[in-house]
Amino acid sequence: MRVRQLQLLGFKSFATTTTIHFEPGVTAIVGPNGSGKSNLVDAIRWVLGEHNPRDVRAPRLEDVIFNGTDTKAPLSMAEVSLTIDNDRGMLPIAFTELAITRRVYRSGESEYLI
Fold this sequence. Notes:
By secondary structure, this protein is mainly beta. The protein has a single domain (about 1-114), classed as 3-Layer(aba) Sandwich (Rossmann fold). The chain is built from one helix and five strands, in the order E-E-H-E-E-E. It has one helix at about 35-45; strands spanning about 1-10, 20, 75-85, 95-105, 110-114. Strand 4 (about 95-105) and strand 5 form a beta hairpin. The longest helix has 11 residues, at about 35-45. It is globular, with a radius of gyration of 15 Å. The protein starts with a strand and ends with a strand.
């Protein structure tokens, strides 16, 4: 079992849809300060069910939603999808992959899709 893909839309600094593919073997996330590396880790924690916004470095749950910049408008929701490879059958499901999606809206509503 391994993480196959992470897709973000409107989560913290990721204003547009961003997809990260994780290939088998060693994966490293590198980049300059402020490029979003920690936000990727926060996104994984969040989609896996983190309830305390402070544990993903946000004062309130709604603060994970992209808040806009001088050139980009704020978004109304954030969405993170995590795809897990289950080729070896380590998860007790009859599928070779599992996708978990979590959304939160500025209204405070949220939803999970599995």
